[in-house]
UniProtKB/TrEMBL annotation:
Residues 493-699 form the Peptidase S9 prolyl oligopeptidase catalytic domain. It comes from Zafaria cholistanensis. InterPro entries: AB_hydrolase_fold (IPR029058), Pept_S9A_N (IPR023302), Peptidase_S9_cat (IPR001375), Peptidase_S9A (IPR002470), Prolyl_oligopep/macrocyclase (IPR051167). This is Putative peptidase. GO terms for molecular function: oligopeptidase activity; serine-type endopeptidase activity. Keywords: Hydrolase, Protease, Serine protease. One of its GO terms (biological process) is proteolysis.
């Protein structure tokens, strides 16, 4: 296998990077047709319909956000595939037959305007104290990608505020906005030449007043073009109003500043210390050991300090959470009088409560059982009636999600909504196991399997993993996994087994677990995943020909490395919206923003390790010549993915196919962005395509 870097001059598939070029799209159409002819049979259509039933189910829990007296929700179902933005009152929400006030019907908007709008969120304008919410900014993507159009919406009339009436409207771009009072916005967007970073995000932020042409608005903040993006936001919380700017240097480093009377006041901490602000508090979490004052904070610690004192030079901090070898902090949120901490211990959730009035003393909040995921979040810390209320979301591989609501120090929370199950969970068991990786590290993984499963190597297993960006994979209920994999049966009556691998690069054990697989150490994530695969075989759960692997985005890079580095371990692979060409990834989509995670291929020393986990370059056609095989592989993506982009998936599929690798398949949806789907029907098709392909290869065939 050659180690010579492949660049633009000697890459024969560069033409597939012309995303909407006719030649490239003709290739896509031809490959789509081949895959659909092979896969889209009656069984596929039946599975797609079954998964759509799950996704469209009216028994799902409508997640809500409280703003003022209303609870807001975005909802998709069979009658509204593009969705409804709606709201209700608490008395209605807690009932089984909630009556909703529809604010925006996205299907009707798309039909009226002839654009396939995809709802991408809102930014509400905080009203004067005691007043109702009246205005919002609505983000709409024309194709499901990251670029959005921003429009001002009037809540009382449930209609747009027209630009001719002074309404804000910004054209489609990778835009971030924040209200600065009722008549001005902080806008980070594409203002023309020089206004974007190499990562394709906004380099500059302007303050745009109502009725003003954004091109003529004054610039208030800017970052270097080599950084990821510039962000400015205004916190209008009464008594704690402030404007904050963040220079996102790379995915793991940033600088935060607070606007003073006439200048930005930087929060002087190392760039890899995560910074949070809430009321009078500054929250700090280092990603590497940090010497501050007379102490050293361990990576993953959460410390607090009074903001103004810290800005004035005082370095006294209080450690609220300190990780040990088996725990990590996932997230936090504030009620009026408490800090709520979501913690993982060996990838099982714990909830802690810290009390600022008692020196940040921490105690557990008793919420439930092991091998489940529990997440707490404040309901509305500014409303006196809900000031110390919290939402508690509970889920597990075999436990449909329950949403409860409680008040800190007022007894156990009360269930509000329970989701319906979509497969018979009583026939399965969840276990946690640990594999030993190549360097001796113990790697946890979850196994969901039929009770009494025979350990004779004959069970079809689906492995899922991610291993990047400090993202944790925790137990959660999936009706689609249940129906598409667990419920299915082989010719000899075996049910599917689902495995989630908690490999390094993720956040399951905090920053150190993540940093253990950064850049030149990336191979550890792949060694971990391979170790789990081998452990499943060693324990008699499965055999390589019965073992499938799936991953998306960074997880697509993971399974791409399984395909090219560990092909003997797997019978089939589904590689979705993937990074695969690590020589070119920084020039495609938003790839430049991930240099801190992977390395910079423009730096010769970095390319030397990047090429070792670049599937596009790691592929060895000599393996074919020697008679060794590769697992059946489906590579899938979306034309409108403007984050990773479809280029890498196209090029990898073309390279493998032209080399004569058998059983290589490709599918590309036109819409859907990086999610691969922009509505439930597209999601059902995408999931049925991926799961259906894998089952056909490792589950349907007789041993």
């Amino acid at each position: 296998m050659s180690t010579t870097p492949v660049g633009p001059a000697d890459d024969p598939y560069l033409w597939l990077e012309d995303i909407r070029g006719e030649r490239a799209l003709d290739w896509v159409r031809a490959r789509n047709a081949q895959t659909e002819d092979m896969l889209f049979d009656d069984a596929h259509r039946s599975l797609e319909a079954s998964l759509l039933e799950v996704l469209d189910s009216g028994d799902r829990i409508p997640a809500v956000t409280k703003r003022g007296d209303h609870y807001y929700n975005f909802w998709r179902d069979a009658e509204h595939p593009k969705g409804l933005w709606r709201r209700t009152a608490w008395e209605q929400y807690r009932t089984d037959r909630t009556v909703w006030e529809v604010l925006l019907d996205v299907d009707a908007l798309a039909a009226a305007e002839g654009v396939g709008w995809v709802f991408a969120g809102t930014r509400m304008l905080r009203p004067p104290p005691g007043g109702p919410y009246r205005r919002a900014l609505v983000m709409l993507s024309p194709d499901g990608g990251d670029a959005v159009e921003v429009r001002e919406f009037d809540l009382p009339s449930r209609d747009w505020v027209a630009p001719e009436d002074g309404g804000f409207r910004l054209p489609s771009a990778k835009t971030r906005v924040s209200w600065d009072g009722p008549d001005a916005l902080y806008v980070a967007t594409d203002f023309g030449p020089g206004s974007l970073t190499r990562s394709s995000y906004a380099r500059t932020v302007r303050r745009v007043e109502r009725g003003q042409d954004p091109a003529h608005a004054p610039e208030v903040f800017a970052v270097d073009q080599s950084h990821v993006l510039a962000v400015v936001s205004h916190d209008a919380r009464p008594g704690f109003e402030r404007t904050v700017a963040v220079d996102v240097i790379d995915f793991h480093n940033s600088r935060t500043s607070v606007l003073g009377a006439d200048r930005w006041r930087p929060i002087e901490v190392p760039t890899d210390v995560q910074v949070g602000l809430h009321r009078q508090w500054l929250l700090l979490s280092p990603q590497t050991p940090w010497e501050i004052g007379d102490r050293t904070l361990a990576p993953g610690t959460l410390a607090v300090a009074p903001l103004e004192a810290f800005l004035a030079g005082d370095r006294t901090v209080t450690e609220v959470f300190v990780p040990d070898g088996s725990s990590s902090l996932e997230s936090y949120d504030f009620t009026r009088d408490h800090l709520l901490l979501n913690v993982l211990r060996d990838v099982t959730s714990q909830v802690l409560v810290a009390d600022p009035s008692r020196g940040w003393a921490v105690r557990p909040l008793e919420v439930g059982a092991e091998l489940h995921t529990f997440q707490v979040a404040a309901v509305d810390d500014e409303d006196p009636e809900t000031a110390n209320d919290y939402w508690l979301t509970m889920t597990g591989f075999l436990t449909p999600t329950t949403l409860a609501r409680g008040t800190v120090d007022a007894g156990p929370p009360d269930p509000v909504k329970r989701a319906t199950g979509f497969f018979p969970a009583e026939g399965y068991a969840v276990e946690q196991h640990f594999a030993t990786s190549e360097d001796g590290t113990r790697v946890p993984y979850f196994q969901v399997a039929p009770r009494g499963m025979a350990l004779d190597g004959g069970n079809p297993v689906l492995m899922n993993g991610y291993g990047g960006f400090q993202t944790s994979l925790t137990p959660s209920y999936s009706g689609t996994v249940g129906r598409a994999w667990l419920e299915r049966r082989t010719a000899d009556g075996r049910g599917g087994v689902y495995v989630v691998a908690n490999i390094r690069g993720g956040g399951e054990y905090g920053p150190d677990w993540h940093r253990a697989a950064l850049r030149e150490a990336r191979h550890r994530a792949y060694e971990d995943f391979a170790a789990v695969a081998r452990d499943l075989v060693a324990r008699g759960v499965t055999a390589p020909e019965r073992l499938a692997a799936t991953g998306r985005s960074n997880g697509g890079l993971l399974v791409g490395n399984m395909l090219t580095g560990y092909p003997e371990l797997f019978g089939a692979i589904s590689c979705g919206v993937p990074l695969l060409d690590m020589r070119r990834y920084t020039r495609l989509g938003a790839g430049h923003s991930w240099i801190a995670e992977y390395g910079d291929p423009e730096v010769p020393g970095d390319w030397e390790f990047l090429r070792t986990f670049s599937p596009y370059h790691r592929f060895d056609d000599e393996r074919l010549a020697e008679g060794a095989g590769y697992p059946a592989t489906l590579i899938w993506t979306a034309t409108s993915d403007d984050r990773v982009g479809p280029e890498q998936a196209r090029k990898m599929a073309a390279k493998l196919t032209d080399a004569g690798v058998p059983d290589i398949w490709y599918h590309e949806a036109l819409d859907g962005g990086h999610a691969g789907a922009s509505d439930n029907r597209q999601s059902a098709r995408m999931l049925a395509t991926s799961y259906g392909f894998l089952w056909r290869k490792v589950g349907a065939a007789r041993r």
